[in-house]
Amino acid sequence: MKERKIILAEREIPRKWYNVMADMPNPGSPPLHPGTKQPIGPADLAPLFPMPIIEQEVSTQRWIDIPEEVLDVLSLWRPTPLFRAYNLEKAIGTPAKIFYKYEGVAPSGSHKPNTAVPQAYYNKISGTKRIATETGAGQWGSALSFACAKFGLECTVYMVKVSFQQKPYRRIMMETYGSKVMASPTNTTNSGRKILEQNPDSTGSLGIAISEAVEDAATHDDTKYSLGSVLNHVLLHQTVIGLETKKQLEMVGEKADVLIGACGGGSNLGGLVLPFVPDKLGGQKIRMVAVEPSACPTLTRGVYAYDFGDTVGLAPLVKMYTLGSQFMPAGIHAGGLRYHGDSPLISQLVHEKMIEAVAFSQLDTFEAATLFAKTEGIIPAPESAHAIKGAIEEGKRCSRENKSETIVFNLSGHGYFDLSAYDDFTNRELVDLKLSEDELKRTLAALPQI
After folding, report:
1. Is 122 within 8 Å of 224 (Cβ atoms)?
2. Can you say how many angstroms the Cα of residue 387 is from the centroid of all Cα atoms in its chain?
3. Within a domain: residue 378?
4. 3 state SS of 310
5. Which of 241, 345, 447, 450 is most open to solvent, judged by the fewest CB atoms within 10 Å of its CB?
6. What are the CA-CA distances from residue 208 to residues 12, 263, 333, 442 (Å)?
7. Is the pLDDT of residue 335 over 70?
8. What residues have CB less than 8 Å from 86, skipping those under 6 apart?
């Protein structure tokens, strides 16, 4: 029989996170206070995050221990399997070897609990009673809801309205774990009311939901804010993905030639590729590819500049690829990729040509997703479908060039709560949504002057 699944024993769960900050080729640009535009310090972040998280956010220590209490929860699903996609290879006729790291085996169905669990743990030991957060497609909100339930914390989730309407089962999952879920923009925060005054029919965005969650945390002493992507500590926690992948490839005598991840804020891409950065810096010929939606093309059409992390301007300014914090993304089904900016770490690596970026349309990614479902059996999340499309294109390139490369992508979650999107696709009701040049110019013109 073919060896399809490469599985690690539970004792092989990584016991340390890898911090790429220790090996970045150049120092990053510091985050700035949204009011003063000066570099922020730990005291500025204290209203939002517990101190252990702040320490990890600014750390340059290469390896950071994973607490035993966190490992105990992670062991519910980690290590995750690495699959060889034999059927997909055959379907596209490629000489390449295609592997995928499957994070959909986690309780909430995606890679997000890898950081939700440690964030909930650090909040618990720091005395936090409630966590406020945002979610797009609902993967992050359901992961944090699960983590808060494990550590006895209350959780309030501001869910982007278009996803709230498109994905009712994600909301039900969060509520089952005990969270309070609201469609953002709401009329319960000043940020939400401001947006609704400007546009009563707003379908919301991650930037708006972040504004609401940040305001909620900053105005309640017992509450902290938690983010599922973008920030350094989030990508740090996700490196368990890449660390396991390296071990699994070694078990079958393979080295990755191409690493691929969908990219919205950067967490699942970073989780896969960052542990391989030292190998690339050491001379290994390895390509790292970020795949994003053409309707929200942050890396491929945005600019590398300081911008607010949220729409209202409450969050710190960070240097990243951005479409402008006033950008309102189209209502594509890949809700987790509808963010105007990207992780500063990922942005810097793209800017310095360490990571490549490509964009694909909604219809193209769903065609790739359905091919994957028919060949490999898993119906992928719409976000993960972007990585599948990227892997298929790389496989076709190997066919044209007659190369047998090893391609690895992160299948960051399943799509069993996203079946309405597949219903739209199979009934030909799904459309491609494009970002016009005029709209892009308008939102970029509003960038803060730093």
Report:
1. no
2. 12
3. yes
4. coil
5. 450
6. 40, 19, 18, 18
7. no
8. 2, 4
pTM over 0.85: yes
Range of the domain at 46: 13-66+112-232
Contacts of 44 (CB under 8 A, 6+ apart): 33, 316
Tell me how far apart the alpha carbons of residues 201 and 197 are, in angstroms, rounded to a whole number: 10
CB 104 within 8 A of CB 411: yes
Residue-wise pLDDT for 11-43, tens only, equals 999 999 999 999 998 999 999 998 899 999 888
Radius of gyration of the chain (CA): 20
CATH of the domain at 254: 3.40.50.1100
Q: Is the dihedral of CA 237, 242, 246, 249 positive or negative?
A: positive
| 450 occurs within a structural domain | no
Strand 180-184, strand 154-160: pairing: parallel
Residues 74-86 pLDDT 10s: 999 999 999 999 9
Q: Is 433 a member of any domain?
A: yes
d(CA 25, CA 281): 8
- Between 449 and 389, the more confident residue is 389
Counting the structural domains of the chain, the total is 2
Given a contact cutoff of 8 angstroms between Cβ atoms, the answer to whether 309 and 316 are in contact is: yes
Do 105 and 117 lie in one domain? The reply is: no
Residues 300 and 388 grouped into a single domain = yes
356 falls within a domain: yes
Q: Specify whether the CB–CB gap between 174 and 180 falls below 8 A.
A: no
